Amino acid sequence: MSSAVASQPASQPATDQQSHYFRCIAGCSAKHSIYDVIYTCPSCGNLLEVHHDLKPLQKRSADQWKQLFDSRASTSVWPYGSGVWGMREWVIPSLKDENIVSMFEGNTNLFWAERLGQQLGVPDLWIKLCGNSHTGSFKDLGMTVLVSVVKQMMSRGSSVRAVACASTGDTSAALAAYAAYAGIPAVIFLPAGKVSTAQLIQPVANGAHVLALDTDFDGCMKIVKAVTQDNSIYLANSMNSLRIEGQKTVGIEIVRQFDWQIPDWIIIPVGNLGNVSALYKGFKLMMDLGLISRLPRLVAAQAAKASPFYDSFKNGFKEKVVVTAQNTLANAIRIGNPVSYDKAVKAIVETNGIVEQATENELAAAAAHADLTGMFTCPHTGVALAVLSKLIQQGVIKSSDKTVVISTAHGLKFTDFKVGYHESTLEEVTSEYPNPAVHLPANAEVVKAEIAKRLS
Ligand SMILES: *Cc1c(COP(=O)(O)O)cnc(C)c1O
Questions:
Q1: DSSP label at 11?
Q2: Does residue 439 lie within any of the structural domains?
Q3: Total Cβ atoms within 10 A of residue 264
Q4: Where N6-(pyridoxal phosphate)lysine occurs, residue numbers (predicted)?
Q5: Is the peptide bond before 338 cis (omega within 30 degrees of 0)?
Q6: pLDDT at 327 over 50
Q7: Has residue 2 been placed in a domain?
Q8: 269: three-class secondary structure by DSSP
Q9: What is the domain extent for residue 380?
Q10: Residue 334's domain is classified under what CATH number?
Q11: Protein residues whose CB sits closer than 6 Å to any atom of ligand 1
Q12: Count of domains observed in the chain
């Protein structure tokens, strides 16, 4: 990091910690430092959120913010080469340069899905490839923030000595990587015998302390909470609202990539509902600071096997529905009791948004169809694409609408899903577009005949 330090800008940002703090989402009045080890409101138990006072941020005009963020988007100057830290004043302004733990995440490609859009009847279709990231999912955006705050806490003599989470997939991969980058010990809790080697291998490779417990996922959560009780181990699970601050940059980044134009729709696959809450938080801040004058409509896409938020939407958000999540190919969103429910309801209501669901067959078909136009979609992105098709068929999304689908993970993390699809072995899926390799003798005439058959 020495060259990065050498190219540090002369002026460090304001470190006024009073300008941003944790507060309870239910409105309890206490303010808590983001450098305190605290995850929920001590009065009512609700989630916390990082609140940013607008006054210091209003010292720059909307145009000045746009210029600043544009100017940092292509730089290698520490830490602005990161899509998250290019917006540091809006994320965690009080972090010191030397405590930021970043592998220049974010700034992922937002590309025009020309052929897929034509085929679906929405020519202005765009894919935001958040999975083109260090550990292969959008979880990196939140983890850079959480681990940076922990590093600053530790540099000030906090009792925290390690970070921990219970997760079978993308969260543990991201936590293990960022912790290893910072030299902070990470502990990953998993249900023994229920997790594949492929799901485990990233934290294993990054040197995390991986503990397989004789219990299920909820049992692991209980143990993590008990172990983190004495504040020596910092909890990195979804209830930790620091991660939202990093994830909220996705919405801002999309608008910046559109030269500050707002799309009509953003579709995102959801489980614990942190990501859709984060999208809304980013858009709200842009509205409050005058960078944009309207909001896109947000669509939360759920797998039908784990769709409590869809059920809640159907009942008009009268009450939170909790289900036992069933097995789904989209295993990163296999959540029956979403942590960030209240925040997500606000995101959907305030943006006139929609919640829709997709079956296993629908998500697999949508992913395979998109792959035939050059993508390599993970099953969660398949859920979002299947929901896109449904909303087009329902006439909700119109052919002239500008629509963004957020691809949350890299397809290469889910090769079993791809192989199973093309071998037509996935449960509850009838492969519509299987394309297995064709085994032939090494005979030019046979080969020519086979190619001719396909091209005819
Ligand atoms: C975590 C995750 C999601 C869901 O995000 P939530 O914040 O839990 O709603 C979607 N897709 C992928 C690939 C994920 O890892």
A1: S
A2: no
A3: 16
A4: 139
A5: no
A6: yes
A7: no
A8: strand
A9: 110-131+244-412
A10: 3.40.50.1100
A11: 137, 139, 170, 269-275, 332-333, 378, 380, 408-409
A12: 1
Q: Per residue in 99-137, pLDDT tens?
A: 999 999 999 999 999 999 999 999 999 999 999 999 999
- Burial environment of residue 329 by CB neighbours within 10 A (0 to 12, 13 to 18, 19 or more): buried
What region does 92 belong to: left with phi over 0, alpha with psi -120 to 50, or beta? Answer: beta
8 A C-beta contact, residue 250 and residue 128:
yes
Q: Tens digit of pLDDT for each residue in 45-66?
A: 999 999 999 999 999 999 999 9
Report the nearest-CA residue for atom 14 of ligand 1: 332
Helix (H, G, I), strand (E, B) or coil at 422: helix
Q: Decide the pairing of beta strands 162-166 and 186-191.
A: parallel
Select, from the ranges 155-159, 332-336, 345-349, the one with the highest average predicted confidence (pLDDT). 345-349
* Whether 309 contacts 270, CB under 8 Å: yes
What is the mean pLDDT of the segment spanning 201-211?
95
Handedness of CA 95, 135, 220, 241 (dihedral sign): positive
Nearest CA to ligand 1 atom 2: 332
**Which pLDDT value is given to residue 16?**
55
The verdict on residue 37 lying in a domain is: no
What's the pTM value of the predicted model, to 2 decimals?
0.95
Strands, DSSP E only, in 203-331? 209-213, 233-235, 265-269, 297-303
CA 150 to centroid of ligand 1, rounded, Å:
22
pLDDT band for position 18 (cuts 50, 70, 90): confident
